[in-house]
């Protein structure tokens, strides 16, 4: 299982790589809303500092999970560039040298 925060962090990293590969001119794509739907399991730790952690489930080849302990979560993320708040642009190139 992977923590939901790790999935979002890895998605951010992939999107940043795509933004870095965007050409200054030529065909670019404005990055719009991103919908991410995952099956998550909940892990609750008790005590004075109770915490709930969300784990993204890796179903593997069997694809079976106990439904009693899982939830489906759908997130809609709207990416923005940190300094300007503008929508980022991405290209189809996988690396800067492919442009």
TrEMBL record:
Pfam families assigned: Trypco2
Chain residue ranges for the region called Disordered: 80-99
InterPro entries registered for this protein in UniProt: Trypco2
Every Trypsin-co-occurring domain range: 2-79
Protein name: Trypsin-co-occurring domain-containing protein
Organism annotation: Dactylosporangium sucinum
